[in-house]
Amino acid sequence: MPETALTIDELAARAGVTVRTVRFYGARGLLPPPDIGPRRVGRYGSAHLSRLALIEELQHQGLTLAAIERYLQQLPADISAHDLAIHRALVASWLPEGSEETDREQLERRAGRPLGEADLDRLAAMNVLERTEDPDTFRVDPGTLHLGVRLLDVPIPVETILAAREVMLAHARAAARDLGRIFHDEVWQPESPEGMSPERMRSLSAQMQPLVVQALVTTFQRSLKEELRAWPVPPRAPDPQPSS
C-alpha cells in the first residue's frame, strides 16, 4: 500500500482534530516532524495519522500529556503505522463499548477513501462498523476504524477474518479473566483487612491498563514471529535449464 501523503489540513481532517492541535502535538514531540516536500510544504503519512488516533485514545483513558509522552517514548523509534493502530485498538478495548453513528460521507472522509459495498462488508466482518436500517447510516467503532481501513486491501477472505477474530476474542477473554483473578486474589484481597477499597482498585487498574496493552502487543508480536519462523519453507523451484 503506498504511503499516505497528507498536508496538515488533510491530516487534521482525517484525524478529526484541528490544525492547531496537530501543531501543538508536534511542538510537544508527540508527533514526529513531517517530510518537507516541494515548496517547503510539510507532508504527513499514515504513521502520523495512527499516532494521532493513539494519542486521542490515551486521552480518553484519562492520561495527562506528560503520561502520554512517557507512553510514546516507550514505543520503538521505528514503530510502523500498523503497529500504532494495533496499540490504539487495544487501548480502545479497555474503554466501555460504544460506537458513533455516522453517514456514508462522514465515514468515507474519516477513512480517506471511497468505500464500496465489499469494503463495508469487510469492515462489518471485522466489527469495525454495523449497518443500520438506513443503507447510508452506520454505527462505527472509532477505536478500530483506521486499523480496519488499512486491512481492506489485504488479500484475506472475509471468512478468514471472522475466524481469526473469534480466536483473538477467545484468547483475549481468557487473558482478561486470568489477570482479573490475579488482581482480585493478590492485590484487592476483599476478604483481607489489608485489602484495597473498590475505588482504589479501579484507579490502580486504570493506571495499569496502558502497560498491560503494551505487554500484550509485544508478547503477541514476538510469539507470532516465532510461529512464522517455525513454518516449513516451501521447496524452491529449480532454475530453468538453458536450452541447447
| Oligomer category | single chain
Class of one domain in CATH? Mainly Alpha
Main beta sheet, described? 3 strands, antiparallel
Tally of separate helices: 10
Number of strands: 5
The strands making up the biggest β-sheet line up spatially as: 3-5-4
- End-to-end separation in angstroms reads 42 Å
Shape: globular
Q: What's the SSE pattern?
A: HHEEHHHEHHEEHHH
Protein architecture, described:
The chain is mainly α. The longest helix is centred in the last third of the chain and has 33 residues. The chain is globular, with a radius of gyration of 21 Å. The strands form two sheets. The chain has a three-stranded antiparallel beta sheet with strand order 3-5-4. It is built from ten helices and five strands, in the order ααββαααβααββααα. It has a domain of 126 residues: Multidrug-efflux Transporter Regulator, Chain: A, Domain 2, CATH 1.10.1660.
Task: Write a brief caption for the model.
By secondary structure, the protein is mainly alpha-helical.
Features:
244 residues, mainly alpha, Multidrug-efflux Transporter Regulator, Chain: A, Domain 2, 3-stranded antiparallel β-sheet, two-stranded antiparallel sheet, 10 helices, globular
Layout of strands and helices, then pairs:
Blueprint: H1 8-15, H2 19-28, E1 35-36, E2 42-43, H3 46-60, H4 65-73, H5 81-92, E3 100-103, H6 104-111, H7 117-125, E4 129-131, E5 137-140, H8 145-150, H9 158-188, H10 198-230
Antiparallel strand pairs: 1-2, 3-5, 4-5
